[in-house]
Amino acid sequence: MARGFFITFEGGEGAGKSTQIQRLANKLRDKKYPIRVTREPGGSPGAEAIRHVLLSGAAEPFGPEMEALLFAAARSDHIEQVIRPAVDAGEVVLCDRFLDSSRVYQGVTGGLPPQIMRRIEEVSVNGMMPDLTLIFDIDPAAGLSRAAARRGDEGADRFEREDIAIHQRRREAFLAIAEREPNRCIVIDASREADVVENVVTAAVFAALDVHGAGRSNMGKG
Ligand code: TYD
Fold first, then answer.
1. Which atom from ligand 1 is nearest to the alpha carbon of 160?
2. Which of 65, 91, 170, 201 has the least C-beta neighbours within 10 A?
3. Is residue 174 lining ligand 1, measured as CB closer than 6 Å?
4. In terms of DSSP H, where are the helices of 56-193?
């Protein structure tokens, strides 16, 4: 069976990833691609159990290394239980956040040394690198106010509560990843209207699927 395609969506808070993932999922479904939508931290029962510990801030007092290992444990379970089997079965997997979030949040702004991050990454990702990563880029002030509006009365999570300067460093770190890995990453200007962003995302993804082509025999084209 032809291999599927693995796409991840990355970026700061309130960049509109979730909305765009839903829109893209609808378009791919229209074209009869077998798709699976998932997210991190979480996406499998084991990883969802860890999600709460991370987002509530319960792990924060134990330091960034503890958090990084928990994100990695959740990721490993998510990959082996959900992502790899889906890609092996020929599906297009859309994942809201993945490894680059760990590089940025735990590595760059968490201050964990790159060599430790690389070792954790090797074990958790275990070869399952994304075929395509869309990095949603937005000014953090705009992103955080979007995130606050979306939340309504609910409190901010552990990561949204942080200082704007930290969010700015994360933005730069995501852009640096895109620059280092231009074959995998595309930067999307997420400050524009949702319909405009949707068109850009759709064009990028369908172009990548066309190049990938090989999986086409059992993907899409229905
Ligand atoms: P979540 O509420 O799922 O959403 P959003 O993607 O809309 O921000 O929050 C996930 C939070 O976890 C987010 O602030 C980024 C953080 N995170 C990490 O710090 N490291 C990681 O490896 C992942 C996947 C997420």
1. 14
2. 65
3. no
4. 64-78, 84-88, 99-101, 114-125, 140-151, 164-180
Q: Tell me the per-residue pLDDT of 141-156, one tens digit each, with 9 for 90 and over.
A: 999 988 888 888 888 8
Return the exposure string of 50-85: e unless at least 16 CB atoms fall within 10 Å of the residue's CB, then b. Answer: bbebbeeeebeeeebbebbbbbbbbbbbbbeebbbe
> Which of ligand 1's atoms lies nearest the C-alpha of 102?
22
Mean pLDDT of the chain: 93
10 lines ligand 1 (CB under 6 A): no
Ordered by where they begin, the domains of the chain are 5-40+86-117+125-212 (3.40.50.300)
Average pLDDT for 175-182: 98
Least confident of 60-64, 146-150, 164-168: 146-150
pTM of the model as a whole: 0.94
